[in-house]
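I have a small job for you when you get a moment. Would you make up a two-line entry for one protein for me to read? No commentary is needed, just the two lines. Write everything out right here, beneath this request.
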Amino acid sequence: MKNFIFSTLFVMQVVFAFGQSSTGVTGKVIDAKTQKPVQSVIVSVQNTNLMQLTDASGKFSFDKVDVGNQLIRIRTNGYVEQLVQVEIIDGQLSDMGVISLEVDITTEQQLALITITDSDLSDDNSGSESTAGLLQASRDVFLQAAAYNFGQARFSVRGIDNEYSTILINGVLMNRVSDGRPQYSNWGGLNDATRNQEFTNGSAPSDYTFGGIAGTQFISTRASIYRPGTRISFLGTNTNYSYRAMVTHASGMDKNGWAYVVSGGRRWAQEGFFDGTDYAANSLFASIEKKFNEHHSLNFTSIYAQNRRGKNSPNTQEVTDLTNFKYNSYWGDQEGEKRNSRVKDVEEPIFTLSHYWKFNSKTRLHTNLSYQFGQIGNSRIDFQKADNPDPNYYKLLPSYYTTLYTYSNDIATYTPDFAAADQAKANFLANPQMDWTAMYRTNNENISNGSRYILYEDRTDDKTIVANTILSSQLADNIVMNAGGSFTKSNSANFKNLIDLLGGTYFTDINTFGINEDEQQADLNNPNRTVGEGDKYGYNYEVNATKIDAFTQFKFTYDKVDFYLGQSFTRSSYQREGIYRNGFYPDNSYGKSEKQNFDNFGFKGGATYKLTGQHYLDFNGIYMTKAPNTKDVFPNARLNNDITDNIKNETIKSVDASYIIRMPNLKARFTAYFNETENTTDISFYYADAVSLGNGEFVSEVVSGQNKRNKGIEAGLEYQLTSTIKATAVAAFGEYTYTNNPNLVIKADGAVGDIFNGKASMEGYRQAGMPQQAYSAGLEYRDPKFWWISANVNYLSNNYLDVAPLLRTDQYITNSDEANFPYDAALSANFLAQEKFNAFTLINLVGGKTWRIQEKTLGLFANVNNVFDIQYKTGGFEQARNASYSELYKDHQGPTRSFGPKYFYGYGRTFMVNIYLNF
């Protein structure tokens, strides 16, 4: 395999040659409205390494451009991008004349996207964010609709999780080693500073990395490419935050070769759309560049984005019916203020030093050294020798009493207590929120014995250093090579951090599920330890990871066909180190685990066939293997050094084919795709009310050897009906399924060994968490006087509930009470049928207006999403509490289920108004 890569590189080097033409192209870029020059516009010759920024007079000039028809790309933030074909004649400097750039008055829609990507409607996994943020750099009509129209419903392009995307800032990978996902909060609130982006869809080629199957997003913060000026904006909304203020200033490159950009922002809300979801985020950005000469530049970027937000709870249908879809059980009143017990706190600054080396007009080398550190915390209530404080704990709800069975002489009898159910309903409606006062009172009553209730956070403190280099070289007139290498080393410290004793004096660091004193110890090296605020307790371990990767890519350009070939190699090494000696695992928790190494290769290729200058056929294919994430390698990392059984690299295969139209009035893309991922491993952590243990235990659910298939078609069409009216139509039809029966292992903090280990019958079930079909139609009117309005209608369907693998194992039958509840296959099939959410239609309105006041631009952007306030589910999951047929049968006997699925809901009607000033 390695010989193949090296041989390919050698063959490519043999054809290395530089064009000798002295011909070129020149032009001047101006603002279409003001007729004034636009500085720092990025001008590039497509399929070459030729790139320039316009000077203060808006001019650019290339020499040594190859003879023939060339595409000149002209782009900068805030303006509509242009792609102009120019005929280059030998010995002549072709003059493109004056190029007028129209202001892109829809740019504000991209700046509003952060309200989507900040919304975390899933679980406590630190990196689980919407994929909408990945798409904001794309101008493709389908991907724009996926981000802005479908994103609010948790739509995912091709149904692919964003751990299969690649996010780069200045060429440095932002995907986390722990779960493979980007943490968008790390640069949230810095929309102005992160607007210089390039996006490639699916497995299409990127100049900066090999990539994956969910697209590549490259964000550049190089100071010299920002257009000089200042921007101030203020936004009001009713989504996950209420207000946002941002200020950004870019200096442009001065005569001494210095350029800098600074930006700052704040977002805040006392309460977001869902009850009790407070929000506070502060963001700072600085980038400074020194250009030493025409060949060398050095750039330093620092990003600080602190984000703290209260979460909202998933709820059963029973709880939603008793309250409303905005109900959130995580908060309660404390001295007249709403206090949320589940808060996500992110603070991970990034520092990057970049060196740009331009050897000549054909070859460039970009090298980075990056360091990131900080913390992510997810808080919750911990308790010992006390009742569960969750206000919708199952024993406090009416359904607990309406599904009661009693046993006499081993005979089960359905004995609902409707009077008790009515009382439970009355009690819940009278006190539906978390009772902070009661917890403080309980702690005060037991002041000498330590707190019964505390507030803690699951903390992850990461430190990551990355060194990488990216080479781009035009080997011949029609061949461009991209190559790169990267080294990543990370240390992740994971522990419980005690935040608040809630009026108590200390907390005893023991696990009450242990049957003897040793088993109860979180750390046998420090038994019966008492802890206070700011102390670590419960679990404490580190995961060290090292990753080396390299890629090469060759792009070939001809009159009728363009094609590319790429390859990659990656080595990943993981090791856990336990800081505590756990009482359940005294010989397998303290110290270092075995080191796990994973080697992976990837190959991809594609071609574009030019039917005419306006019609194209495009094909992409990829075969690659991928290392499991660190969280999937160590299944019970909180307690021991276990390695997931038969852990393997994932195998990923993907192909897509597109027909593309690019006409003056019509732009369209029609794509068919097929993706398969094999041997995936997924580990979920959650509190289970009971899984053969009793009450309230933290468990891990390990699903390994899972295969998935995603196939479908997507279409996007944009037609300019008149000079001022544009119509769009978008369709996504997908089918995302599980194609085999994986292995399932259930482990718990309070038990030695596996609670369950066996196969789960998942084949044929649908992948959950996103609509698998989505359709959109829209109209947009752009007035010559610089105001615009658009409306779109969006229909989304085929979203499914996330099924519990434990309910689809042999245990479901073998653990059932067959004597009292004889197995009924038809009834069981109904119990286990995957719930399909109702389809829904969302109507959105968007508009804006700009005014030119002397040298300043004042703008207004506004939108209303979900105009008719439609209530819809965005996701949900089955509870695994009743893991046998008999228990599930009993749970279905009352008017409402006690352990029914829990659901997440999308926003109702929301609005956003943004005012900005550019000068």
In short: The CA atoms of residues 570 and 600 lie 5 Å apart. The chain is about 10% helix and 45% strand. The radius of gyration is 29 Å.
